[in-house]
């Protein structure tokens, strides 16, 4: 049984936003208008956070892509009164749209703000209606939705492996965001498989002391790992200051 | 006459309670897919002729059943492979088919087997584990003129029971995503 996880190397991230677009297209996420952002009701299963670092002449942009952390002890799960959000045996925090009654307790309890509520029926411009992914449900008004590590791809690959009578191969599945990333900053795979790309990347980064997780001290054991930026200039300035 | 108000009260309560009960019963009856009447189709396609009389395999027309999620309906070109040499004069259903083919218009069949919302069913996996089409669809080959009728419930209880009996996974994410 695999344990799915993701590694995001912030040293490689250039903040292009390809992951956001890929996710939007893959998972039938509605297009957010400006109004929706002002209402703070925008839906983006993975978002790109931008931070400015430093004073004006030496200012630097820092980017963090934030998908759902797929916490092992997910705070969103126990608050659901109808068990619409639950943990699969493969470590994915799933949302069952049929069960969801839209209490929004889960989004309130999520510290990463990666759960989104459909306040209205989703709308697409006519030109995009034929690009909806048939493998993914179009969520209707009144249900929560969230990143599920492209579970339809995982299910498809597992079914293919089953038909061919074999186990899932290492790194056979990848998510839309990881696939679209031009610099391979996002890597997806099985954390329990020592040969997978994520495990090897983690093991290497562990030696360099670069691994961290967002809001790790909450103890929810997220399955999305970040590798921190290697800033040569900042290290040099810090060395000079000492 | 002493108890007339009590009797009236009890009667009113019974009537009030009967209304939701009747509604619930009616709802379950009308929602049961197997209880639905046969759906009208643009062409009254007789499976009986194609399967029993001619002996076609299901996958001759529903070509993608073994390889993909959807069994798919055949394109009109496939129908016309045989029907271009079968006379259609005087047979209204066949005339409709030929007319649609000549006008390059698809036939808008009505979907018979409706799954619940937000559910994904994959034909290829079920067939590769040796299940017959008739396990879920019944003996379609014997269904004649009016059209195909759904014979199995195909709601979640039905799916789960079969999955449990056959040792298949019952995780929500197997079907709901």
TrEMBL record, chain A:
CDD domains: PsrB
Protein name: 4Fe-4S dicluster domain-containing protein
Gene Ontology molecular-function annotations: 4 iron, 4 sulfur cluster binding; metal ion binding
Transmembrane intervals: none
InterPro entries: 4Fe4S_Fe-S-bd (IPR017896), ET_IronSulfur_Cluster-Binding (IPR050954)
All residue ranges annotated as the 4Fe-4S ferredoxin-type domain in the record: 4-34
SUPFAM superfamilies: 4Fe-4S ferredoxins
A Pfam family matched in the record: Fer4_2
Annotated keywords: 4Fe-4S, Iron, Iron-sulfur, Metal-binding
Domain of life: Bacteria
Naturally occurring in which organism (per UniProt): Thermomicrobium roseum
TrEMBL record, chain B:
Organism: Thermomicrobium roseum
Classification via CDD domains: Cytochrom_C3
InterPro entries: Cyt_c7-like (IPR029467), Multihaem_cyt_sf (IPR036280)
Record domain Cytochrome c7-like: where: 44-84, 120-176
PANTHER family according to UniProt: CYTOCHROME C7-LIKE DOMAIN-CONTAINING PROTEIN, LIPOPROTEIN CYTOCHROME C
Lineage top rank: taxon: Bacteria
Protein name, as recorded: Molecular chaperone
One Pfam family matching this protein: Cytochrome_C7
